Amino acid sequence: MSTLAQSINEKAVRLGIPLSVHLDVTYRCNERCVHCYLDHDDNGELTFDEIHDLLQQMADAGVFYLTLSGGEPLLRNDLFAIIRRARELTFSVKLKTNAILIKEKEAALIRDLGVERVQISIYSHRPEVHDAITKVQGSLDRSLAAIRFLESQGLKVTMAHVIMSQNRFDYSGVQALAAELGAECTIDPTITPHINGDRGLLKLNMSRENLRDVMHDPTVLGGDPAKFCAPPLPATDDDLDALPCSAGNSACYISPYGDVFPCVQFPLPSGNIREQKFIDVWKDSPQLKEVRSIRMRDLPVCSGCAHVAGCSRCPGLAYMEGSMRGPSTADCEKSYAKTGIPSPNMIRLGLAGGSGR
Questions:
Q1: Range with the lowest mean pLDDT among 20-34, 59-73, 131-145, 339-353?
Q2: Which residues, including other chains, have CB under 8 Å from residue 242's CB and lie 6 or more apart?
Q3: pTM above 0.90, yes or no
Q4: DSSP secondary structure, 35-78, as one string
């Protein structure tokens, strides 16, 4: 995060402003990715009129950054009307899509409506690997064709690459492909449990050895092999007084059914905009108030961990593991991969030795 963006986020937290909202407009999807943490049925999506009203409520509440996603958002026939209304309200809009429905007409609309960035998931530079993950033959070629055309229209594109056991050797190929196409590239080694709490998807995680290699690759996360086994920096009072995450503090997630959560990876039910105004959920939800009350020093396990100052701990993953005040074992594994020093949580779970998960 840039210094300016960090300053804006800190001010939003102080003023109680929901600076950023992630809105899934549908859970329906034309891919069936093996690691997807969402259901794909339509159980009563928000109508266009409901979303139109919600966008106005969010603008009145001070929202600036709006991410529109799904499922596959282009499966909604009214998506571009939604984007048009969002831009009329001066939201900075990011669109997350698999892009296989984006042709010249759709790309032109995305450009003309002033979408800030388009994020497209690419799981491999090899069609046989990417298509096996999406379970749609030809999906890589169609997504790449869309990226090329979006770039030709001057749009900013990010290729988002999630690493799992099936594609663990392909991230460098995806990085090279992004460079060739002129797109940004993000690498994420995190598999998220299903939103219903089922943790079966975690079997897709890559091995500890592979994670260590990724975390020590300077092109991915800034890892420095020379620092392997180096002790983490000690926590300061500022570290312990810090918020665990922006989720619920300056950002939130809204499902296609109007359910409000701190984050898409933090499925703590916190209200529904069909039952309350958005600003009332944001300000008065007991669940969001609890999230906002927590500082790093309030975490009984993590506050005493040597990694607390530099850990990527996700409170949503911790919540799905059992407690929003507890550790996220996936992030403990990342810290261990970086430094070779196990967390108290890993020692407690007997995960500190050996090479597997």
A1: 339-353
A2: 295, 296
A3: yes
A4: T--S--S-S-PPPHHHHHHHHHHHHHHT--EEEEESS-GGGSTT
